[in-house]
Specification:
The chain has about 240 residues and is of the alpha/beta class. The protein is built from seven helices and 13 strands. The protein folds into two domains: about 70 residues, Ribosomal Protein L25, Chain P, CATH 2.40.240; about 160 residues, Alpha/beta knot (3-Layer(aba) Sandwich). The strands form two sheets. Strands 7, 8, 9, 10, 11, 12 and 13 form a seven-stranded parallel β-sheet that branches. A six-stranded mixed β-sheet has the order 1-4-5-6-3-2. Strand 7, helix 2 and strand 8 form a beta-alpha-beta unit. The longest helix has 18 residues. The protein is elongated, with a radius of gyration of 20 Å. It starts with a strand and ends with a helix.
Length: about 240
């Protein structure tokens, strides 16, 4: 029988004792009606999974004792999604699905065609990532950065990163061919434009920093679809292709 999974901040785990507060405590005590003696699985974003037995339960605070610690199963590829900030709540959907697909870092960026800046929304995106972490049974919580300029995001990538640039003007190089021919396949970043896509200057900026232009096929996808499709293709090449 699978255990209920809770995501907590690193400070909530101290010397084998775990504290659940706020929404997590309320959900466990009031919604799930959990009692002392019951066990749950707790992750704090470190990549470790802890089986915790509750010792005291209230809607405001729950205390538990760690009875087992194990390391979660990491993916073979470190995925970063560099996403042009879209309008309305599209980024919520992107964060949720990207977390389910194993993205380790989300970098919202402001490009020349960006029409929404995402000011004040990063905290909400982090909450969505934490909730999606619980649902997808991940042991690590992805980092969600504050929105920044495209150049700043590209300059901050580790030098060993393979940068894949989704571009409707590319018709030959696929994600599969890029991964099979480039040695930098263990750390992959996918760049997706906002509504309207990347403009020529954005593309030149990315290619000038070593980015590879790739195609997703003959159809033009929405921004909230393109990144998710690309991430799934990267994972297929790494995890499922025989």
């Amino acid at each position: 029988m699978s255990l209920r999974r809770f995501v907590v901040p690193p400070a909530a785990v101290t010397s084998g004792i775990v504290l659940l507060r706020g929404d997590a405590a309320h959900h466990a005590a009031v919604v799930l009606r959990m009692q002392p003696g019951e066990r749950v699985l707790v992750v704090d974003g470190s990549g470790l999974e802890r089986i915790v037995e509750f010792t005291s339960v209230s809607p405001r605070e729950i205390t538990g004792q760690v009875v087992e610690t194990r390391r979660g199963t990491p993916q073979r590829v470190a995925l970063t999604l560099i996403q042009g900030v879209p309008k309305a709540a599209k980024m919520d959907q992107i964060i949720r699905m990207g977390t389910e697909l194993g993205v380790r870092e989300f970098i919202p960026v402001l490009t020349r065609r960006t029409m929404a800046e995402g000011k004040g929304r990063a905290a909400r995106w982090r909450r969505i990532a934490a909730a999606a972490t619980e649902q997808s049974r991940r042991a690590d919580v992805p980092a969600v950065r504050d929105p920044r300029l495209l150049a700043e995001a590209l300059d901050g990538l580790p030098p060993e990163t393979l940068l894949l640039v989704l571009w409707e003007g590319e018709h030959v190089r696929t994600i599969g061919s890029a991964l099979r021919t480039d040695p930098r396949r263990e750390r992959v970043a996918v760049l997706v434009g906002p509504e309207g896509g990347l403009d020529d200057d954005d593309v030149r900026e990315a290619v000038g920093r070593g980015g590879l232009l790739v195609t997703l096929g003959p159809l033009v996808l929405r921004t909230e679809t393109a990144g998710v499709a690309a991430l799934a293709m990267v994972l297929y090449e790494h995890e499922l292709r025989e």
